Amino acid sequence: MRKFRGVVPSLALLLALLSAVAGCGVSAEEDDDTLTVLAAASLTESFREIGDRFATANPEVDLRFNFQGSSMLAEQIRQGGAGDVFASANTGMMDKVREAGAVAHGPDTFATNRLTVVTPPDDPAGIDSFADLARPGASAVVCAPQVPCGSAAEGVERNSGVRLRPVSEEDDVKDVLHKVTSGEADAGLVYVTDAVAAGDEVRRVDVPDADQVTNEYPIATLDGGGHQRLAQRFTDFVRGEEGREVLRRHGFGTP
């Protein structure tokens, strides 16, 4: 019987070579191109468009978004929640994440935003100014004080001397907007960008004092996410020319 003496040694050599290659190690970042971005609810529309453009330029990256109120996201990160990038609707929430030691690089301010009043298109309550929100019989909705849009609302109240008595306080600005578009409230205090996103679903009433209470939006890569190279590529894209163009078109100011 013919014997294939070379087969076993060759197989052993092949296995050894494969083992050596595996032993060299492929980092999680090189092996897994999934990038998780935690972003304020008010960034939903703009970041989805930025994400599409980023994906076109980086087809190998699987980009996933988690849009919630900044305070909720900050708490998730502080409790060890997974994520590679955090984009907050104000510096206060980012400071909490940074103080917890969760920031790897940044933060850098990439956008600004301010508040405006929105009503249903037919404006049944006749809301023509911020002061009208405090009028007896008018049902107004705002963000809760502990979230960025709620903190900004308190600033507008202080500057204008108008004290609101909202019928509800919501955890993020999208919930405020929904109360208005669904007809559950006569008016709501939301970001300009949310009014832009809602389009014909709402009527907008500018708030002069809102210019004095501008929210700065910082973005940072997170420590422990395992994809810092990709995370930095995304934050650079957001802060770059293409990202700024998208943000401006959605109503954000850019620093």
Automatic annotation (TrEMBL):
Q: What is this protein called?
A: Molybdate transport system substrate-binding protein
Query: What organism does the UniProt record list as the source?
Result: Actinopolyspora biskrensis
Record-stated family? Belongs to the bacterial solute-binding protein ModA family.
Q: Which PANTHER family match?
A: MOLYBDATE-BINDING PERIPLASMIC PROTEIN (PTHR30632), SULFATE-BINDING PROTEIN (PTHR30632:SF0)
Looking up Pfam families in the UniProt record yields: SBP_bac_11 (PF13531)
* SUPFAM superfamilies the record matches: Periplasmic binding protein-like II
Binding locations of molybdate: 42, 70, 173, 191
> A single GO BP annotation from the record?
molybdate ion transport
Signal peptide (UniProt feature, chain positions): 1-22
Q: Which domain of life is it from?
A: Bacteria
Keywords (A to Z) from UniProt: Metal-binding, Molybdenum, Signal
Concerning PROSITE patterns, the annotation shows:
PROKAR_LIPOPROTEIN (PS51257), TONB_DEPENDENT_REC_1 (PS00430)
What are this entry's molecular-function GO terms?
metal ion binding; molybdate ion binding
InterPro entries referenced in this protein's UniProt entry, alphabetically: ModA, ModA/WtpA, TonB_box_CS
